[in-house]
Amino acid sequence: MAGTANSDDEFQDALGEEITEKEATNTRLSEKDVDEVVEKHNQLRLDDEAEEGAAGGDVLVKQPDSEMSIEELRELEKNLSNEELAANKEKADKLKLEANERFKNDDAVGAAKIYTEALDICPSDSTKERAVLYGNRAAAKIKLDANKAAIDDCTKAIELWPEYVRVLLRRAKLYEQDDKPDEALTDYKRVTELDPGQPEAREAQVRLPPIINERNEKLKNEMMSSLKDLGNMILKPFGLSTQNFQMQQDPNTGSYSINFNQKPS
């Protein structure tokens, strides 16, 4: 599965299925009906936000990449029939394809907005489909240099689909750019577990450990220097300094002992 996901084009359906126009049935809602359901819900949200803003003195504006929460979506779905949910899923698939085209045409802002619209109607139990929407929106946010928001979307996708190799790899790269090599290494290791032949993940597991060790050593030295400065400030009134204390490490246990030296050299 992992190998197939990685070989697909960046914005093709990661499920490996072609989206085709389904035959109309007597029980399926029309696209217009679906739009009316979504529009009605959105208008209710805007009305609620306006009332809340008036009560609190602040005007609340829904961000273009802020989809409704999963709790809100499930609450909405309680009033929908199976036919309506199926129609919503079909509409979300179409929106995803439209967003993919926008991304390919260098309209990352438009793509991110439409992925959000799709998330607002894609059924809550369609976990892989929702994961793909989050993963694709993350890629659009990367184009907009919104890496932290992209990491959030990658995380949401992975929570829905823990084996989503493409997005695990995407988040690993984002963590590296955000100077979080530990988190990046964890994701690269997970990618290798799912797809042992993934070259970028294998290379990163050789490259990152020395970087992490060097950083940890630097942080340790900075911490020791700060502690030394603090110790000297505390000991100064007693005519002492940290030079009166020698720290020695036991090679067998790795623990440290402190010895007092009355007259340091």
Automatic annotation (TrEMBL):
Tell me the keywords, alphabetical order.
Answer: Coiled coil, Phosphoprotein, Repeat, TPR repeat
Biased segments, Basic and acidic residues type: 19-47
Q: Which PROSITE patterns match?
A: TPR
List each coiled-coil range: 66-102
Q: Which SUPFAM superfamilies match?
A: TPR-like (SSF48452)
Question: Which Gene3D superfamilies does this one have?
Answer: Tetratricopeptide repeat domain
In this chain, the stretch annotated as Disordered covers 1-66, 244-265
Each TPR repeat, start to end: 165-198
Domain of life (superkingdom): Eukaryota
Acidic residues compositional bias: what residue ranges?
A: 7-18
Instruction: Offer one Pfam family short name for this entry.
Output: TPR_14
Q: How does it assemble?
A: Interacts with the GAP domain of NF1. Interacts (via TPR repeats) with HSP90AA1 and HSPA8.
Q: What protein is this chain from? A: Tetratricopeptide repeat protein 1
From which organism does this entry originate?
Answer: Drosophila kikkawai (Fruit fly)
Q: Where is the organism placed in the taxonomic lineage, from the top?
A: Eukaryota, Metazoa, Ecdysozoa, Arthropoda, Hexapoda
Query: Which gene does this sequence derive from?
Result: Ttc1
